[in-house]
Amino acid sequence: MRIAVFLPLLVAAALPGCGKPEQPADVREFVYVSGAEPETLDPARMTGLLEGRLANGLFEGLATYDPKDLSPLPGAAEKWEISPDGLAYTFHLRDAIWSNGDPITAHDFAWSWRRVLEPETAASYAYMLYCIRGAQAFNEGAQADFDKVGIVAVDDRTLRVHLARVTPYFLELTAFSTFLPVHRKTVQKLGRAWASPKNLVARGVVNGPFIMKQWRINDRIVLERNPRYWDAANVVSDRIVALPIESEMTALNAYEEGRADFVTSVPLPLIVKLQARPDFHGSDYLGTYYYNFNTTRKPFDDVHVRQAFNIAVDKERLVRYVLKGGEKAARTFVPPQIPGYSAPDGPRFDPGEAAKLIAQAGYPGGKGFPRVKLLYNTSGRHKDVAEVLQEMWKENLNVTVELVNLEWKTHLATVRRKDYQIARAGWIGDYVDPNTFLDLFITDGGNNRTGWSNPDYDALIGSSGREPDAQKRMAIFRNAETILTNGMPIMPIYYYRVQNMYRDDVVGMYPNIRNVILLKHVGKGQRSRPGT
Q1: Could you say which of 181, 215, 247 is where a domain stops?
Q2: pTM (2 d.p.)
């Protein structure tokens, strides 16, 4: 899942409206810093981590996650069966209702998943449903009959899914944001505007533990317990408040002053000091910080230029002397935490070879190289990283790179339409498997923003889904990542580290490599309640 990391504007400034409002003493409220203003809270269209975190409070999939280890647990479905060949899943929905009182049915899920696959929805994550029989052909317009797609509402309480291939992580997918249900009548009546702040507050119909109570843009999002949620008695907090604070220094101030209970990253200049505190919680993170190259535009249509830019950067120096938070330099895209997978050896820092490559591309000593722009979204860390790389490229390649800062929504839209040369990006695994990283870069993939295409790569990613042997499957992924690394449409820079801060009165937090925080289970000082 795409991630926005927000680090400091080095001047601490309190945002208006950040203080906790007056409230009855018996209201259990949990306040956290969410980062930027959400791009969308429509499950079919969201791609960001911050949006997904809010979505898991508003909606619930067939399965949900165990907060301790992220294993799939019954959600909207109370149970399921899997066929012996692993290709058919039958979900039995519990007797539950939407927040407006309508029954939640298998037809709601079938329609919601169809909506993701409808070409006009333009869902970036539609390819995540391609493991379902006929889903890819329907999404790509090769066949228009949805009855041929393996999503069948047998009756109101039974959904049967036929897979195109064995997918070991399919139950995890049914808990993921793209697979969350939406209320059909509401979406059909309001169209795309159904997920606007105004409509989600006034007319939003959800099936999760919370309802949308307030959405004041660039100020706060307030969720309140959904009394019609099937498991409302076991929701830890009565109210969740998300503060869209982009500056990490401002976010830390809110935390230190008791106006926020949880922040997900810390100011870079203070990282060493903060790591020594008991309320700092750091751990491995299944994610990679990287740059996209637009391979459809000069000069990055030349693989030699892309390779030169990559090996002209001393990533070890960056993580050791700039980031200082335990991050690891990345030479390949897939992080090292996936069991059974061994990534290929990626290229190392080599300024001499980088100079040869840039000369081979027609720019000896950097002569004649065009001035290029690097886009990054608002964040002190992104700026710091970009400035270091800007200096290294100048020193080692004698090229000039201009830095351009954009706010989160604008950055996403600009990169999505490929109106860039180099652009900052980050990806957190949506499940623990190499596929969640490597299928990003298939030709015309919904999240492939580089314009890069390689038929051999596409064939390997496709064949990985048909390979039942686990070791052979991992070998296929390794071969695919070798092609990706050689083609260099992206430049891996470092592997993320979780950098959460919360005090010991916060409950429902469990370290995990995806840093998934389930809003249903978090709260303050309610140790006798579930999720603690």
Answers
A1: 181
A2: 0.86
